[in-house]
Amino acid sequence: MFHIEIRQKNRPLVFYKERLYLILSFLFFLWYNVLKILCAKGKYKMHKKEIANILNDIGLLLELKGENPFKSRAYYNAARTIELLDEDIEILVKEDRLKDIKGIGEAINKKITELVLTGKMKYYEDLKASIPEGLVEMLKIPGLGPKKIKTIYEKLNITTIRELEYACIENRLIDLAGFGEKTQKKILEGIQFVKQFSGQHLYPEAYTEALKLKEYLDMTKTALVTKIAGSLRRKKEIVKDIDILAAASDSSKVMEAFVNYPGVKEVIAKGDTKTSVILKSGINADLRVVTEKEFPYALHHFTGSKEHNTAMRHRAKQMGIKMNEYGRQKM
Q: What domains lie within the chain, and their CATH numbers?
């Protein structure tokens, strides 16, 4: 009943496109996990761009902490120097020649050496842990730099973008030194910009997470069948969340397995037919459970866009048929 694909010699183009996407997504998933293993073992060769990005991050984090500006500038300069290197940085590190390059001091040389040889930098990890995560998120707001964020944190004890938005609405930023009404207005506009484009994920990233979630549910054997639905099934380049559809005789067992998935960070809502969670990767995931009889109709409904489903219902109505996610019947 669930084998929706038609088994024939002359298969439609969409059949091959879907399998190509599956192969590419699997390769991406495989590469990502091999990369993690190699990094953990210190065998992954880090590129100059990756190292430069980490050094730039350290510079920003030091600014957020209010450290000496010369210290931050040293990391920014080191990042620029690394990006412009002609030689292989791994060779420079192994031959202990990195310290001889202008712009790379002794302390930064040790940190880069640790990063290249092990794939990690303790100083960077400790620095990130010492700063509220929300302050780093605030850097996404256009026009809001580390110095202003530090002032907001120290004077108003604001640690999240949501708290900052409320402070702007309540005009609490106007009296801060270096701010004012125009600055507050720009920050509020920047927050709206961030909110508009937040929660969007590239297809390979989201599909990899969805595939792992689906495989986990299949392994629990609590559902008769599971399918990835929504914009991921439509192969959209950018998606907002993951939609999983399952057919089961007992929805409670599937829901229980879903919320106990190791990748779940937080359960937003849990019900008999729908449960929503936030994954540790930051992507929202929804699970809907229907009966075996309803499954084909639900898969069609929760795969199609809102416009597609509206057009299908309109066409069905013209044919004297009532159609929804649970089935169809004559009017």
A: 48-129 (1.10.150.110), 133-197 (1.10.150.20), 201-330 (3.30.460.10)
